[in-house]
Every structure is written in structure tokens, then in C-alpha cells.
Design a protein that fits this description.
Blueprint: E1 2-11, E2 18-20, E3 23-27, E4 31-32, E5 45-49, H1 50-60, E6 74-77, E7 88-91, E8 94-101, H2 106-111, H3 115-118, E9 127-133, E10 135-138, E11 142-145
Parallel strand pairs: 5-6
Antiparallel strand pairs: 1-2, 1-6, 1-11, 3-4, 3-10, 5-9, 7-8, 7-11, 8-9
């Protein structure tokens, strides 16, 4: 089963805006180049599942709710992220080890009333991981489980 990278965002400062970019560089042991959260030990990159995001938007009655509000780095479609702790995701030459579920924070509620609670069940807040192998990633790239 494969999916696609639908969007990429880089955070320029802690709690700063999420800037959409068409491509970025993942660096092993670091995360996305120039991202404010890069370099964290296990939370070097965050990903959200586009299908789950679509479900959240429908439940909130907010069909135009921008996925950038989730404040994740990558939006993927066609590949379920729920329950994937310990799995390795391949994005071209890059490999990301999923360490766990991303817990939605208060910033979600500030962005859209009800969003924080809507993201709580079923890993809707996405996942975080560590970059094992670096490489370029761009919108449209295929993503798949490297350990499948």
C-alpha cells in the first residue's frame, strides 16, 4: 500500500506560522532542514493523515479548514498512520521511524473551536518520528511502509 505527500510545512519559529513549501530536505537525526522543531530527539518530524483530517473537517462542519492549522510538517494521503508506532515510513530515499501519536495541544482549540477534541480519538492528531535516513521530499512523492 502506498500513499502520496500532499503538503509540506516548515515552522520558522517556535509557535510561529507554518510555511507551505513544495519541497524540503529531511536530515538523519535532525528532521526537516530549517524547521524550528528540528533536532529534537524523537520528535524530529510530524505527519498527519489527510483522510482523517477530512473526517475531522466534516465533523466540525468546516470543509475549508486548512490542514496547516494542525501544525504538522507533512500531510500524507492514501496511507493510514493510526497505530503505526515502531514502523518505518519511506519517502523516496528518506526513512522515518514512527515513535508515536501526536497529542493535539491547546493551539488547536485557539485555531478552531472543537478542533482539539476532534483530533483526540483514533490518532487523528497524527504521528511524530525520527529521521533515520535523510533525503529530499516534495509534494507528490510516494510514501510507503519500508517494513511492509
Amino acid at each position: 500500500m502506498t500513499g502520496r505527500v500532499e503538503a509540506i510545512w516548515i515552522k520558522r519559529a517556535h509557535r510561529g506560522p507554518m510555511d507551505p513549501v513544495p519541497r524540503a530536505e529531511l536530515r538523519a537525526g535532525h528532521g526537516l532542514e530549517t524547521d524550528a522543531n528540528a533536532g529534537r530527539s524523537k520528535r524530529q518530524v510530524t505527519l498527519i493523515d489527510a483522510e482523517l483530517w477530512d473526517r475531522v473537517r466534516a465533523e466540525l462542519g468546516a470543509p475549508d479548514l486548512d490542514p496547516a492549522l494542525r501544525r504538522a510538517n507533512l500531510l500524507v494521503r492514501g496511507l493510514a498512520l493510526m497505530g503505526t508506532r515502531g514502523r518505518v515510513l519511506a519517502l523516496g530515499p528518506a526513512r522515518i521511524l514512527v515513535h508515536g501519536e501526536t497529542t493535539p495541544c491547546r493551539l488547536m482549540e485557539d485555531a478552531q473551536p472543537g478542533l482539539q477534541e476532534a483530533l483526540r480519538p483514533g490518532w487523528r492528531g497524527g504521528v511524530y518520528g525520527e529521521v533515520l535516513e535523510g533525503g529530499p521530499v516534495q509534494v507528490g512523492d510516494e510514501v510507503a511502509w519500508a517494513d511492509a
